[in-house]
Amino acid sequence: MAGSDRPPAEPSPDSRIGPSAGSATFRFDDFDSFAAAISDAEVVYVPVHPGSFRAELTQIQLGRVILQLGRDSPHLSRGVAGVGRIGMLLSTHGPNGTIFNGRVIGPGDLMMFRPGAPLDSTTAVEDCWAHLTFTEADGEALTEAWGAPFRSADRYRFLVGDPSSLGPLRQCIRRAAEFVAAQPGSVAAEGFAVSLADSLEGHLGSLLAGARQWDRATRQSRRVLSLVARVDDYLRANLARPIYTNEIGAALGVSPRTLHDAFRAVHGMSLHGYLHRRRMGLVREALKRASGSNALVKTIALAHGFWTLGRFSLAYRHMFGESPSATLGLQR
Fold first, then answer.
1. 64/219 Cα distance (integer angstroms)
2. Rounded to an integer, what distance in angstroms lies between the CA atom of residue 61 and that of residue 203?
3. Burial class (CB in 10 A: 0-12, 13-18, 19+), 62
């Protein structure tokens, strides 16, 4: 950890690679299933653009090191980093219009986060990303060994990488994905997991050592993320009735303008727009959980504040590409 008088012992490659090694690729047309499949994080996805959702996820297990490669449609997501893992997240093509924890992400940015860190993002275009995670002990040792340790109060940090080191890391990830796609059983072959994990850690270390800039979470960013999380908690505690901006402001003791500014900073949209999309997502979750003849679309829609069934059905179809009754019928 930061402040230690001596560097941590460097783990041997064999100690980083356990007996588990393998890979799998999955394709999704449902954002709930995609979010549930992402390992080392607990996230909720809500689409931000109308139409069908498409996503692909490749998971490469290298013992104690896990590499995930994702491609997904425009979305809004809220969640937290998984327990016991330290993660590194970067775009594999350079993002365009992505906001992560209240910060507009540039093509050279790398996000680092500890267990329990907020993972709030909004992306306006199809995104391709790589998510590399380590055990908490390995991750702390790696960041400290390369001179980029977390500070005691940090839950996440942003790194602006040097192109000379970011490029090789992206290239290593891309070649690994291509190789695994062509030879799915290769990950389990003797020596492959150790070699790939060592290459990833080497390129990542060069990136950490040559970083031009580190951005820590500012007091302002922590404040707006905390406020957005409080709003989300309030919504979850009051699912049985419609919730509006003025009520949230009165309950939390903040002005509508403050709420508006916080959601603009974190998600790039107004609180009104967020409330609409979030309630639509909650309706879809309720429809997918429902069973039996008493689970009526109208009842669920009313419970989430949609009073006009005709308008609700049109808006639902516009956002998810199917009618509410189709979602309910598929689950039955």
1. 34
2. 18
3. buried
Per the listing, tokens 């993972």 go with 119
**How do beta strands 98-100 and 103-104 pair?**
antiparallel
Q: Which residues pair with 100 in a beta bridge?
A: 103, 121
Please give the DSSP secondary-structure letter assigned to residue 150.
Answer: P
Domain at 13-216, CATH class: mainly beta
Q: Say which amino acid occupies 291.
A: S
**Would you give the DSSP letter of residue 240?**
T
Q: What does the pLDDT look like over 141-183, one tens digit per residue?
A: 998 888 888 888 788 888 887 777 788 888 899 888 888 888 8
- Which residue in 169, 255, 262, 251 sits closest to 210, CA to CA? 169
Q: How far apart are CA 256 and CA 137, in angstroms?
A: 43
Residue 91 CB coordination number (10 Å):
22
Written as six digits, the tokens of 175 are 């070649």
Arch. (CATH architecture) of 220-331: Orthogonal Bundle (1.10)
Buried b (16+ CB within 10 A) or exposed e, 42-53: ebbbbbbeeeeb
- Please report, for the chain, the start and end positions of each structural domain, with discontinuous segments joined by +: 13-216, 220-331
Q: How far apart are CA 329 and CA 95, in angstroms?
A: 37
Residue 276 tokens, joined: 């609409």
CB crowding 178-196: b at 16 or more within 10 Å, else e: ebbeeeeeebeeeebbbeb
> What whole-number distance in Å separates Cα of residue 96 and Cα of residue 209?
26
User: How many Å apart are CA 95 and CA 93, to the nearest integer?
Assistant: 6
**How far is Cα of residue 197 from the mean position of the Cα atoms in its chain?**
22
User: pLDDT tens across 203-243, in order?
Assistant: 888 888 877 666 666 667 778 888 988 888 888 788 666 67
* Pair 70, 128: CB distance under 8 Å: yes
